[in-house]
Amino acid sequence: MTSTAGFLVAYRGSVILAPMTERGDVPGSFRVRVVAEAIDRFAEGGYEATTVDEIAAAAGISRRTFFRQFRSKEDVIFADHEQLLDEVKQYLATDHRDPWAAICDAARLVFAHFQESRDLSLRRYRVVQLVPALRDRELVTVHSYERIFIDYLREARPAESVLKIVGYAAAVTACHNYLLRAMIRGDADATVESLDAALADLRKTYGFASGSGTDQEVVVAKFPAGTPADVIAEAVRRQIETNGR
């Protein structure tokens, strides 16, 4: 995914000239390839025993190129999380009629990303579970999503109770993470649809089940380029229903 263009209900395509990597692929696919090779090496030889040189050789790049893209072996494991954190920030930085629904949509975006790359996510999950330092990094990363949600809601709804905001953000994050791990492990019931249902129930519990607008205008939100179509469709559908109430 890239953040240089965006969606406005329907995708507005752009032709972007990007620098090429050693094998001739653009940076996005290059990073995915290196991450996949690194995780495969970690799974086969162990995280601690695998060297950067081995990863670089498997990916067909130089050690120098590796360190231009990643600061360490640990960064390779969590590379797409860093990208997703940026995309979540970008999404929440756009106009949203209902901020409580907006963070649910942001969580859905993250879930959809990992569902699309489930095989790679499963291999990474298995590696992370074997290394205490990686498990600690994962906890920090999870908290980063929650922190973004809290900061956004406090700015969007300054009159709301801080404790209510913190509780809501934590609950959204917890529902997402529970279903995400279940999906990665192969639970057929852990789907985007089940996440939607869980978050809809959560909004009802907190009293944020619908927007407060009474007019008939449709408010359009921008999405980072690469946002899955079903995430966009669900957000637009929810907004139309809210405006129609």
Comma- or semicolon-separated keywords:
245 residues, mainly alpha, Arc Repressor Mutant, subunit A, Tetracycline Repressor, domain 2, 2 domains, three-stranded antiparallel β-sheet, 3 strands, elongated, disordered N terminus, HTH_TetR, HTH-type_TetR-like_transc_reg, DNA-binding, Regulatory protein
Layout: helices, strands, pairs:
Layout: E1 6-8, E2 10-11, H1 27-45, H2 52-59, H3 63-69, H4 73-77, H5 79-92, H6 99-116, H7 118-129, H8 132-156, H9 162-184, H10 192-206, E3 222-224, H11 229-244
Helix pairs in contact: 1-2, 1-7, 5-6, 5-8, 6-9, 6-10, 8-9, 9-10
Give a brief rundown of this model:
The protein is mainly alpha-helical and 245 residues long. It folds into two domains: 6-77, Arc Repressor Mutant, subunit A (Orthogonal Bundle), CATH 1.10.10.60; 79-244, Orthogonal Bundle (Tetracycline Repressor, domain 2). It has helices at residues 27-45, 52-59, 63-69, 73-77, 79-92, 99-116, 118-129, 132-156, 162-184, 192-206, 229-244; strands at 6-8, 10-11, 222-224.
